[in-house]
User: Which sequence fits this backbone?
DNA sequence: GCCAACGTTGGC
DNA sequence: GCCAACGTTGGC
C-alpha cells in the first residue's frame, strides 16, 4: 500500500497510505542529491539533519509511518495477507532516503493515522523487508506511477511492514504534547509533513505507554 | 473546509 | 540559479 499517499484520497487506491501521492516527479536538475548519488534530486530538506543522525546511530530503530486511514488503515494492515504490506507511494526524497538507507528488518513502526479525527497512533508494526523499489512507480496509470523513474535505477523505494498489534487506545497529539518526553518529536513540529519519521527510543516508549490499554 | 507550511516546477 | 506560481500535506 501506498502508504504514502495523499490526501486526495480519491486517487489513491493504492494501498498504502502514505499519503504522499502525488508525485509528479521531480526531477530535473537537482542539485543536491547527496547521499544517493544520483545526480539530480531535489534535496528535500525537511528533515533536520538531526533526524538523519538519529536514524543512523542506533541499533534498533523506531519509526513513525503516516497513513490516511481512509486510504489504508492499521486495520487494513491487520487484514492484509500475512498482515503485511509494501509501504508504497512515498514520493518525497527525504522519506525515500529513510526507507532506502535507514529502515532495517526488525525496526519498530508506530502506525500513525493522519487526516483522521483526531489524528492518532493506531498500532504497532515492524519492518520485515528492507528498502527495495516501490513497484507502483512503474505501473501505467497507477496513481503512484512515475514515468520519469528509470527501471534500471528506480527512484522510489518501499519497505514491507507487518502488523504487530493495535494500541489499546489511540495515541493523540494532545496526549503526546502533554508529556515532556515528546519534546523534539517531528510529528508535533509545526509544518512538519514528513511521512516517514525516526523516533528516539524515549519517544517510541512514550507512544507505547500512552497507547496502553 | 480552511489555510499555513512547504516542496516542486519552470520561466527567465 | 532565482523566484513566483502552483500543488500538496495535514492539523485544526
Assistant:
Amino acid at each position: 500500500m501506498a502508504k504514502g499517499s495523499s490526501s486526495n484520497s480519491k486517487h489513491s487506491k493504492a494501498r498504502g497510505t502514505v499519503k504522499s501521492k502525488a508525485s509528479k516527479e521531480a526531477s530535473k536538475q537537482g542539485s543536491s542529491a547527496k547521499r544517493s548519488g544520483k545526480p539530480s534530486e531535489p534535496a528535500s530538506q525537511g528533515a533536520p539533519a538531526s533526524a538523519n543522525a538519529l536514524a543512523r546511530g542506533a541499533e534498533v530503530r523506531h519509526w513513525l509511518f503516516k497513513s490516511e486511514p481512509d486510504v489504508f488503515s492499521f486495520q487494513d494492515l491487520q487484514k492484509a495477507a500475512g498482515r503485511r504490506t509494501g509501504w508504497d507511494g512515498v514520493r518525497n526524497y527525504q522519506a525515500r532516503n529513510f526507507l532506502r538507507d535507514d529502515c532495517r528488518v526488525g525496526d519498530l513502526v508506530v502506525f500513525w493515522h493522519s487526516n483522521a479525527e483526531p489524528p492518532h497512533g493506531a498500532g504497532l508494526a515492524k519492518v520485515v523487508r528492507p528498502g527495495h523499489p516501490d513497484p507502483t512507480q512503474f505501473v501505467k496509470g497507477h496513481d503512484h506511477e512515475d514515468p520519469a523513474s528509470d527501471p534500471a535505477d528506480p527512484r522510489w523505494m518501499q519497505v514491507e511492514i507487518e502488523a504487530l498489534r493495535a494500541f489499546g487506545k489511540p495515541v493523540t497529539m494532545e496526549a503526546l504534547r502533554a508529556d515532556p518526553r515528546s519534546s523534539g518529536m517531528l510529528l508535533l513540529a509545526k509544518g512538519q509533513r514528513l511521512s516517514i519519521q525516526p523516533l528516539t527510543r524515549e519517544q517510541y516508549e512514550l507512544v507505547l505507554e500512552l497507547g496502553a490499554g
About this structure: The radius of gyration of chain A is 16 Å.
